[in-house]
Design brief:
35% of the residues lie in helices and 28% in strands. The chain has helices at 17-57, 70-78, 135-139, 191-200, 202-211, and strands spanning 7-8, 13-14, 95-104, 107-115, 122-128, 144-151, 154-160, 172-178, 181-188. Mean pLDDT is 82; it is low at 58-65. The chain is rod-shaped.
């Protein structure tokens, strides 16, 4: 049985087919519009959520402190084949990223990586075992000695890192003979931190020089 035409209260009579079509079209348009707005709001909220997760997940500011104890690690290494490892006497405010023995350019070296108290850049303190005269230059990508300077009684060769090729983030370097070994301090930090690191190993370098 056919359904009778809808009576529109405002008109006081049934809708004409044209009015029915217009009403349905307007209703569909309103539904689609509301759906689009809802989708837009949902998409915006999802995007904001993703951005918030990224911001919270990506580390910012200072590098996290590590639990590396340089003196303890050096003692463990010395119990093996190596002895007389230098242990820089630096404040606890200098964070240690790593301390280990590795091989660079075929020369085994006791390597400590610091983030200085200033928080700027990094410095590596390396003790190259039985290193040859050109070892420091090779580590510094071909840098040449530009002069010498004395820090706490130890004479250091200062390397012209700016003239080296592909130095990356190495901006300065100092090297000193320590008996049969070479102590090399280099990285990207301020001059005061570089000199402080050099002074922190002066007594130990002197001992190694006297023993040789």
């Amino acid at each position: 049985m056919a359904r009778p035409p809808r009576v529109v209260a405002e008109l006081g009579r049934p809708e004409t087919p044209g009015e029915t079509a217009e009403r349905k079209a307007a209703s569909s348009a309103a539904y689609r519009s509301s759906k689009t707005v809802r989708n837009l709001v949902v998409a915006l909220l999802v995007t904001l959520g993703i951005v918030a997760v990224i911001i919270l997940a990506v580390p910012r500011g200072d590098l996290p402190a590590t639990d590396v104890d340089v003196a303890e690690t050096a003692a463990k290494v010395e119990s093996g084949d190596d002895a007389d490892l230098i242990v820089p006497d630096l404040p606890d405010t200098w964070r240690v990223n790593s301390a280990l023995v590795d091989a660079e350019d075929a020369v085994r070296a006791w390597t400590i990586v610091y983030v200085p108290e200033s928080g700027r850049g990094y410095l590596r303190v390396e003790q190259g075992f039985d290193a040859d005269d050109a070892w420091a230059s090779r580590v510094l990508r071909g840098a040449e000695i530009e002069g010498t300077e004395t820090i706490d009684g130890i004479t250091w060769d200062r390397y012209d890192v700016s003239g080296a090729g592909e130095t990356g983030n190495i901006t300065q370097g100092l090297a000193a003979q320590a008996g049969p070994d070479v102590v090399l301090i280099y990285g990207d930090s301020d001059e005061a931190s570089l000199r402080q690191a050099a002074a922190s190993v002066a007594d130990q370098i002197r001992e190694l020089q006297e023993e040789s």
